[in-house]
Design goal:
- The protein has helices spanning 2-9, 12-15, 42-67, 82-90, 97-107, 111-125, 129-154, 158-161, 177-195, 206-225, 229-254, 258-289, 300-333, 351-357, 371-380.
- By secondary structure, it is mostly helical.
- It is elongated, with a radius of gyration of 27 Å.
- It is a multi-pass membrane protein.
- This is sphingosine N-acyltransferase.
- Its EC number is 2.3.1.24.
- Pathway: Sphingolipid metabolism; Lipid metabolism; sphingolipid metabolism.
- Residues 84-128 form the Homeobox domain.
């Protein structure tokens, strides 16, 4: 049964163009080709990267954050309350207003005191700036090394300057050791990102980030197995060109160095839009959709690979919309107040809760949920304070 499943999984019509077989990609006479089993080395390397990351954040990231003046916001601790803690865990820290009123009555608190307890409890769960800085610094180092390492590997290759050369004599394209190690390095990193998801900062675009990681891992693995290394290497290099600028922008934003952050934000935006919205569709998608089938007929791998690239492009459009919103805010206020890709340091109280703390009722009256509120009603009805 296992042999039959293995035979079906590696059916040549799924992975290779018509009239090509795996036997043509066997190593011979000193010529080495890509083999799917080579990617298994990415698993232990991913674990090694996880260990390197935690070591880097502790020995390099934290001292660097202190040197740059990153300061964590002081947060007030909440008084232990078993009833409120239970509902905090059940409702993910945001119970409904009706539940909030019931909880206030059960605990002998006012509604405002209960709201304040949940707000401060949520603040305790939010990551501090130092943690954000350490995470961004690790990704900055990786993307920077990966981009310039990949550039050195591909600089003298013809397909870097002419993407149509990715299909020259495909799939009979020998594997170069430097390209293999760079590819393995990239795959291991994205696997390590999935491994550390429970420990990473959960941002508003969490689902899109997870989808991006899965698409990238699938693209890298499939492109290597189908010997689509040339076009795959262009996709990786194109993405790394903007990612290290993004992480550098975050680092200076956390360090409150707005001038440097603003300058990097402008550069990042230009590079991101040019690489993801111009080069990617006009060079990568065009050559994979049209130029690739000039020498052979479409097969399953052609449709599968292009579907993943199209999904990746949709994610590019999503993040481009977020960056455009940031640019709009940047042009209005003259500085970047929030992190790119919705990586924002949340305030101690949200706008909705602030409005709840100071709600205005009709006829100029105010709510009556405590001594201060009763005093407000007294003054609103035309009486003067006696104090």
């Amino acid at each position: 049964m296992w042999s039959r499943l293995n035979e079906w999984l590696w059916w040549e019509r799924l992975w290779l163009p018509p009239n090509y077989s795996w036997t043509q990609l066997e190593d011979r006479d000193g010529v080495v080709y890509a083999h799917p089993r080579d990617m298994l080395a990415a698993l232990p390397l991913a674990l090694a990267l996880v260990a390197m990351r935690f070591t880097f954040e502790r020995l390099v990231g934290r001292p660097l954050s202190r040197w740059l003046g990153v300061q964590d916001q002081a947060r007030r601790l909440v008084k232990p309350n078993a009833t409120l803690e239970k509902h905090f865990l059940m409702e993910r820290g945001r119970p409904k207003e009706t539940q909030m009123a019931v909880l206030a009555a059960q605990c002998g608190l006012t509604l405002r005191q209960t709201q304040r307890w949940f707000r401060r409890r949520r603040n305790q769960e939010r990551p501090c700036l130092t943690k954000k800085f350490c995470e961004a610094s690790w990704r900055f180092v990786f993307y920077l090394c990966s981009f310039f390492g990949g550039l050195s590997v591909l600089y003298h290759e013809s397909w870097l300057w002419r993407p149509v050369m990715c299909w020259d004599n495909y799939p009979i394209q020998p594997l170069k050791p430097a390209l293999y190690y760079w590819y393995l390095f990239e795959l291991s990193f994205y696997i390590s990102l999935l491994v550390t998801l429970p420990f990473d900062i959960r941002r508003k675009d969490f689902k899109e980030q997870v989808a991006h990681h899965f698409v990238t891992i699938t693209l890298v693995t499939f492109s290597y197995s189908a010997n689509l290394l040339r076009i795959g290497s262009l996709v990786l290099l194109l993405h790394d060109s903007a990612d290290f600028l993004l992480e550098a922008c975050k680092m200076f934003n956390y360090a409150r160095q707005q001038q440097v952050c603003n300058s990097l934000f402008i550069v990042f935006s230009l590079v991101f839009f040019y690489t993801r919205l111009v080069l990617f569709p006009t060079q990568i998608l065009y050559t994979t959709y049209f130029e690739s089938v000039l020498s052979w007929d479409p097969f399953f791998g052609y449709y599968f690979f292009n579907s993943l690239l199209l999904l990746l492009q949709l994610l590019h459009v999503f993040w481009s919309c977020l960056i455009l919103r940031m640019i709009h805010s940047f042009t209005k206020k003259g500085q970047m107040e929030k992190d790119i890709r919705s990586d924002a340091e949340e305030s101690d109280s949200s706008e909705g809760e602030a409005a709840q703390e100071r709600p205005q009722l009709k006829n100029g009256t105010a709510p009556t949920d405590g001594p201060r509120s009763r005093a407000a009603v007294w003054l609103a009805n035309g009486h003067k304070s006696t104090t």
